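Q: Here's a chain of 132 amino acids. Please give me its 3D structure as tokens.
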Amino acid sequence: MIRMSITVLAIVILVVSIGALAEDQPSSRWPYGFWVAVMDEDNGPLDFMEIRSDGRVVLWGICRNGHSTRGESLPFHLSSGDIYVTWEVPGKGPIALVFRPNTSKTKLTYTSPRTRNNMYYEYRAAKPCPAA
């Protein structure tokens, strides 16, 4: 009886541990979910974005005091493992934003074509600014 209880306890601990580790890991539905800017080599504001299964990326402003502003909703597609976002500037033309994932698909890197500096995003299981 004690041996069975220890086995059941070990299984419960294993399941809970895997769940905790997976909380901030992309699901099998990669790249969908929330991506938070954690570092910008140009020292710009750290925003976040939501990559949605409907083929759109929603850009969000900085989370301050539990609030954020919703910005553009832009189309994206995947190509050769990268995420390509198209931002149409009225009267000008398109700007391509390209995000490259790391091998574990938990981080994205965006390289500015103007400055050649990087901005780094990390996956989050939940919306980083819930009141947004």
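Q: Can you summarize the key feature?
A: The longest helix spans residues 2-22.
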